[in-house]
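Researcher: Last one for today. Full complex below.
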Amino acid sequence: MPNPKEHHAVVGAGLIGGLWALMLAQRGYKVTLYDRRPDPRKAGVDAGRSINLALSDRGWKAMTKAGVDEVVRTIALPVKGRMMHDHSGNQFFQQYGNDDQFIYSVSRGGLNMLLVEEAEKHPNVEVKFDHPCSGYSINDKGTVDVNFKDGSTIVHDRLFGTDGVYSAVRSTMVRNDRFNYTQQYIPHGYKEILMMPNDDGDYRISENGLHIWPRGEFMFMALPNPGGSFTCTLFAPFEGEESFENIKTDEDVVAFYQKHFPDSIEMLPNLIEDWNENPVSSMCNTKCYPWNDGGRVALLGDAAHAIVPFYGQGMNCGFEDCSILSELIDSLPENSSESDWSAMLGEYSRVRKPAADAILDLALHNYIVMRDKTGDPKYQLQKKIEKRIAEAHPDKWKPLYSLVTFSHIPYNEAWDRGELQQAVMNVVMSQSDIETTWESEEIIELAIETLDKFHSDSNSLARPTPLLSVDV
Amino acid sequence: MPNPKEHHAVVGAGLIGGLWALMLAQRGYKVTLYDRRPDPRKAGVDAGRSINLALSDRGWKAMTKAGVDEVVRTIALPVKGRMMHDHSGNQFFQQYGNDDQFIYSVSRGGLNMLLVEEAEKHPNVEVKFDHPCSGYSINDKGTVDVNFKDGSTIVHDRLFGTDGVYSAVRSTMVRNDRFNYTQQYIPHGYKEILMMPNDDGDYRISENGLHIWPRGEFMFMALPNPGGSFTCTLFAPFEGEESFENIKTDEDVVAFYQKHFPDSIEMLPNLIEDWNENPVSSMCNTKCYPWNDGGRVALLGDAAHAIVPFYGQGMNCGFEDCSILSELIDSLPENSSESDWSAMLGEYSRVRKPAADAILDLALHNYIVMRDKTGDPKYQLQKKIEKRIAEAHPDKWKPLYSLVTFSHIPYNEAWDRGELQQAVMNVVMSQSDIETTWESEEIIELAIETLDKFHSDSNSLARPTPLLSVDV
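Model: Here's the assembly. Have a good evening.
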């Protein structure tokens, strides 16, 4: 444990900032948590509009480390699998993992508030709202001048940027020599529609599932909220034949839903109202490197790696940053020097970068899978076969979705294992009689033999791209 | 020609800004050219240190359009080819193109000054130094508030960002929704060493060549200056076994040069002095899209597309931006509307983006070729064969270097043609007896037949990557 007299700044009181301020405080540091926005408890957040996020194992691990898992559990709704809706209104359920494995739907605003309040309860933490950061500079003493938009500066020993995709902390790093940065918008946008509870106050569709209407170039989704409603989202291209730019009138909206999601219309009485009120939002990936500026500044969460939402891992990846960085801080020697900090934050950058790059790729890829593949019978058959292999050989086989969602191995290792397994499944699915033999022991044997062969011969294995069998 | 009463801002009085201000003025617009730096004529530029750039056909075309080609010619030194130096001090000359084709070594500072002064002579142009731009905003009237770091704002009808790799104009666009941006540093840096004239005031090595000492992971280069000196540059990795971080003492510098460039040492009497005085500089690629903000703002040159210097095309590509945008402005209807401008600048973005992406790739690739391939006898043989094919069939074959340097076809088309020709050369060079048969007519016939075959069958042609036969 290094010098606990240090006073750290955490810039950005979002999900990651709230948790990270608490974790630093628990390690004995004095912490000031800054946010550009007014205090949501005074400003009155729009409670009617809620974005849902999926909390899974990596996120829970960080909650447990910080001792807030029990309280978070009170606002988290377990979701057991995905429910696909076809054009005719038929529904197909697919369980995410084993019977005791769930992802948890939580409201972004609710979880954010909870984490900031848990941090604020800690005597080492002070929270300052209405403090928009404009960047930082390393001063003559080697400590950090945190700069604010009103021209003021507050000196801190170290600065942690948890200020999201448009990070002000990162905006200073972007001007550093040899700092790499990319922001890339995808050609698709999204619009939210709220599915209200029915007249009895109940859920209109099963609350045990994440509902998907996969339709090739676009898809509609619904995640349950506590209280009977669902937050629904249409993902579609901005431009093109069937796209947001071509849905102009109320009639266009109804016609589009009638054509593609006919079973959803009667469940969405406020479709037109929400459509006209809610914007089409864009989605951006960002990558940068390094995530630290010497031993004095580091980025966590979206500030370091913003990804598209299609694997439900953006928040979980940010929470995993907190777990890993807290462990690295715990491993610092007793009287840690500046070079210890510099080496440690450099290590944090190097370890986390490939993991973040991998989940970015997985998330991008999973968008194609979700909207295009989940409705495909052959894809569904493959999932069933994979489940049988995994049950017969849990030591050798774990589906990629489980590696990402229900494990703690680095995302890049999950991705590598997933690709190897997909190469095996390509062999399995190419068996001419697979539709009739899929439940046989021989198929399981074929899979494991092929896997072993690929393992022993992994240098010559051509990476199977694109992988088309990831799921949410 | 659109409304000539408009008053345009050009931000950045570098090479591209100077030329572009002049071209806008020639089209009847009132122009203010801003630069963050003080007037170099008053500030006294460091004349001893000169970066050289290679002006080639694309650049000359823009000079001619603006009517400054004659005056530029007075400060440009023709270079006919490249001169390779091997470990033993042997030199091999390779001509760039036909006997009448040259690239022209010019001093960045000298050409910059000339272009800004040519612009300033035009009655429509005003130049304001000491005006560091901080960004812009589109105001309520739809015109452009150009913002400066002192907090002042000057309103212009349109804004052109020619402010280079760290563009302030682009820094506003980066915050626009759906604006894509990448900055990527390469792992290599460079350091400049000046080769003074000999005691008689003459060049120490032939001034007709761009000298290269290709050494695999690194290389040394020399470009002639008027007056007998050469500007030399060592390109090498920042980190690693043989890298800048491992050359620490004066003895290390001498040992490194003794080992790799022994023939250069006696020509560099101030090697140690320059080494210790000059920094190791980094090299960055940037990409962005779109290059315009509606019909009001556009980027030209490095502000839109900064590339590494290894094809000698960064400046030429920026000048080509000016040629093409000037032609698009000339094609606007008489009383052009805002939507005409918006469509025209959108077209400029769309047309130029693939060309800039292609020259970025070509420049990155050419670094590998220059430092690793130019010294390879097989590579040199391939160049000789290609020259024979091109001379026998000038209508069908033009080496990639010539397509890039001595033509005006878009860089992306040059790259495509170059890859096709490289695929043909792979077939030619794989002939078992090529070392003895290379001067035969059959080899030329084989090349042309293979080219025709690939052309007629181009859909099935696998793109040959990586292409390893580009040259500077």
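The CA atoms of residues 187 and 237 of chain A lie 6 Å apart. Confidence is low (pLDDT under 50) at residues 460-472 of chain A.
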